[in-house]
Write a structure and sequence with these properties.
CATH class: Mainly Beta
Number of helices: 7
Helix content: 25-40%
Largest sheet: 8 strands, mixed
Number of strands: 12
Strand content: 15-25%
Structural class: alpha+beta
CATH architecture: Sandwich
Radius of gyration: 19 Å
Shape: globular
CATH topology: Jelly Rolls
CATH superfamily: B-lactam Antibiotic, Isopenicillin N Synthase, Chain
Distance between the termini: 39 Å
Number of domains: 1
Length: 292
């Protein structure tokens, strides 16, 4: 299997977004064009907050199954709260993914025009500090995502603040993921089947444990291997459409570990950043060839 090198997928420091914004935007944008992915260090999400979030997530997933299912909301499509193991299946796959997860969304005030489409969050009373921790992490992800979108705007040679209004009060979702230890032979089941993300961009913490792979333009699966604490960012379908395919929404998956690692759980926290609900996604000027 090929290994991603620094010459392929970009590994950049978010500090350079201020120190050298043009170079930062170029490295990031080229990586998104070629691979749909980039790795970001020095992202500003405090280590203490990340560790606290990891601890709270592990505490929730360690609860009895019956307790966790109290937070399963029938008919909600899993938009908020708990989704049990064995429910989610990747598009086109026959076998379910080997994971369970919890969704945190944006809380909106009474009377907000998007409130009907964005249900209130629910919070597990069994894990003290769960709500405060993940409300803080959600807000931090939101800010970090906007910084990355500003760099993308610079790369696309549009107004640097173009995306500010497009994502304001967007239906962004933070997912707390638990891939349990694999017992026995998994058969055709994998931790996360091959898929693309439908949203604008995805910010992922916790990908240090091996397993995340992306599909290159020439059809190779290659691993995405951030260092501890680094953030993986990838382009979603919405931004691919907005840029008329210039920035790639890349197929990716989480494969099962080798037999000697199957007894280890995997945890991660992706943040699926969305445009606001009434934003019309049409290709940006300059991205559509003349005559089309």
């Amino acid at each position: 299997m090929a290994t991603i090198t620094a010459d392929e997928i970009a590994s950049v420091s978010l500090r350079d977004a201020d120190r050298n914004p043009d170079e930062f935007a170029q490295k990031l944008g080229r990586s998104f064009e070629d691979y749909g992915f980039a790795i970001i260090a020095d992202h500003g999400i405090p280590d203490a907050l990340i560790h606290r979030a990891e601890d709270k997530a592990k505490a929730f997933f360690a609860l009895p199954e019956e307790t966790k299912r109290h937070y399963l909301l029938p008919g909600s499509g899993g938009a908020r709260g708990y989704t049990p193991f064995g429910i989610e299946t990747a598009k086109g796959a026959k076998a379910h993914d080997l994971k369970e997860f919890w969704h945190v969304g944006r809380d909106l005030p009474e009377g907000h025009k998007f409130r009907a489409h964005m249900p209130d969050n629910i919070w597990p009373s069994e894990v003290p500090g769960f709500r405060d921790t993940f409300e803080e992490l959600y807000a931090t992800f939101d800010r970090t995502g906007l910084t990355i979108l500003r760099a993308i705007a610079r790369y696309l040679k549009i107004d640097e603040d173009y995306f500010v209004d497009t994502v304001r009060d967007g239906n962004s979702v933070m997912r707390l993921l638990h891939y349990p230890p694999i017992e026995g032979e998994p058969g055709s089941n994998v931790r996360a089947g091959a898929h693309e993300d439908i949203n604008t961009i995805t910010l992922l913490l916790g990908a240090e444990e091996a397993g995340l792979e992306l599909l290159t333009k020439d059809g190779r699966w290659i691993p995405v291997s951030p260092k501890p604490g680094e953030l993986v960012v990838n382009i979603g379908d919405m931004l691919q459409r907005l840029t008329n395919g210039r920035l790639r929404s890349t197929t990716h998956r989480v494969v099962n570990p080798p037999p000697e690692r199957r007894g280890h759980a995997r945890y991660s926290m992706p943040f699926f950043l969305h445009f606001r609900s009434d934003f019309l996604i049409e290709p940006l000027p300059g991205t559509v060839p003349q005559g089309e």
